[in-house]
Write a structure and sequence with these properties.
By secondary structure, the protein is of the alpha+beta class. Helices cover 31% and strands 25% of the residues.
Amino acid sequence: MATAISGEPVPVSLLVIDPNGHRARVALNDFPFKIGRQADNHFVLRDSRSSRNHAQIVREDGGYVVEDTNSRHGVYVNGAKVARHTLKNHDRIEFGFSDSYQLHFSTESPEAAKMLEQFPGAEQMAKFEGIAGAPGPASSLAKLRAVLEVARALEASLSTNEVLTSVVGAALSITGAERGFLLLRKGDGLDMVVARDRHGSVLAENDLRVPRSLIHRALRQRRELLSMNFDPLESQGAGAERSIADLELRSVVCVPLVKIRTGEERETTIMSAENDTLGVLYLDSRAGSQDLSSGNRELIQTLALEASTILENARLLTEQRASVKLEEELTIARQIQQGLLPRELPSTGWFRANGSSLPTHQVGGDYFDVAPIDGDNWAVVVADVSGKGVSSALLASLLQGAFLIVSDSGAAIGRRFERLNQFLAGRTQGEKYATVLYATLSRGGTLSYVNAAHCAPVLVHPDGRLEELETTGMPVGLIPEATWDVAEKTLLPGSKMVIYSDGVTEAHDQTGEFFGMSRLLEAISECAGESCEMMHGKILERLESFTGGAEQADDITLVVVEFHA
């Protein structure tokens, strides 16, 4: 493992190459560093073929080890399948598909490597960084030291201002300029962020005597994205030429700061100078007559691009923190929603049940509940709210609360649906609705149910015969005037009823083929004589085997109830 001079571990990272060829650097800070398709992993593989929890990287004996966490398609390092592998610099990690993600493990400083690439002969010169007597502030060694200082600041600092200050300092060292200013665009003007002289002293804002409006105008009028021409005397015009001349500026360099589109380098040719400008790096000198940019333009532009990258990273970090906070809140919401599902289902006696609901997003629009009405009656409800995400989950929770207190039976169930429908339709204007199956079962075997456009439940008779129960009305919340009929069936001992959401029949495999009703009926038929618990488990096993780990678009809810005398 690489170590810094101080003995502290050098931060390790992953160079991520996504299926589209875009590259990004991901720091490894938290361990175990979890990788997979599930949203709460440290790095999410947005590939439906990967497993929810595919792999993890752990610290072990001063090094780093990648482990396969029982993934479906395996983990590969440098082309070889592994269960565990101690990582070395530049190891390539893949997840079973050559056209998917590649993660390149790195123990090098990505910032230093990237910046040194911009400086010819840097690798050889770095060996002599400590040699004294280098000629002049703009010598090759001084330039290299300046670049290295920025790279070190990028590694060590969490402060955007500190790194931008290092960029200005490096530019002053490279050019030999007397003063450096970094200004950021704000509205129609420029805000001063960093102002330093060649000795590192802080300058006052009014030390920039050239009007900012002139610099801003030159920024807007430039023809090239990464370079601009700026002459204070020509820009100001004849009227104030004397006041500008009093500054006795011998040389001025202005380099634009532009937006960096991470992973989309090929788009820079069509970026707009007006819309994609962040600010400017301004350098000037009153001593000598040399061109400050002479022989250094590419390196100065590299520093400006580093400053632009820092600003973009700061923006992305702010967005990431907001996203992480949102993910944390959604995770809590999911835990709460899962906590509202019945924890214990009856497994003995005349009424038995088994069920589950798996949201494909952090929170989903499906829910189910099973509850006793009294000693002689049980109720079961399965609902599927239109849409996905938080709004659907909130409506699902509202429905759950509405049905939790229901103790109606027979024709009264239909009136309960009508009142609930009017309430929802009046508040959502038909934009949110739900399909609902609500049923009550008595000790005597009388099944009363309302099917509000939900998937037809399957009744499994004791002799193994299957019967689909018809729909008795429209979705809840769609039309205020809708009504529902209550249907009844008499069940024989040993009968079961399978209730499911359309996420079951519309679950798809890697090719996009649906599981479908015929496969569901076949799965039910194969275990018709099993208990409700065994039937529930075997249907889900059949479904998982079919989908092959493909990411699903809809929540999957499945409930099986069983009647005994």
